[in-house]
């Protein structure tokens, strides 16, 4: 994908570094916003999307050709398809859908599928842990047992207790998985 290698002596290399830092910063902003307010601002997701497409354009201009733009577009379309489906099924909020779709422009189609699968796993674990934090282990485990017989209960909002917001900050799990996936793509890990 774009910005795989850095040519630190060139303008393209500096753009690549700046875009990577912006990507990481925007994802961190998304995680903090989701934790604090259970909202991911549209300005954030819009900026993330635009910078992802700009990055693909910079990569294309540096010699990667139209393939970089095509890969970014395919990844974006795939991210939208996967996460909008989950949004329409009521499994994730549309702020989370927009976040993952916008970040998909930074990935390859394979990376979108990998990150989507891992976001589901990590998000499921986070949902259970967050419910235990918000309502206590006994209540949460009883609710999960009940959900094995009556799956629609998971679509009902979890009532808060003790002043804690019971809604799961699902964007946090997405951010963690996306950061790991781009680290792999950028050969950082």
UniProtKB/TrEMBL annotation:
GO cellular component assignments: membrane
Highest taxon, organism lineage: Bacteria
A GO molecular-function annotation: aspartic-type endopeptidase activity
Transmembrane domains' residue ranges: 12-32, 44-66, 73-95, 115-136
Prepilin type IV endopeptidase peptidase domain span: 22-128
Keywords in alphabetical order: Membrane, Transmembrane, Transmembrane helix
Pfam families recorded: Peptidase_A24
Official protein name in the record: Prepilin type IV endopeptidase peptidase domain-containing protein
The species this protein was found in: Roseisolibacter agri
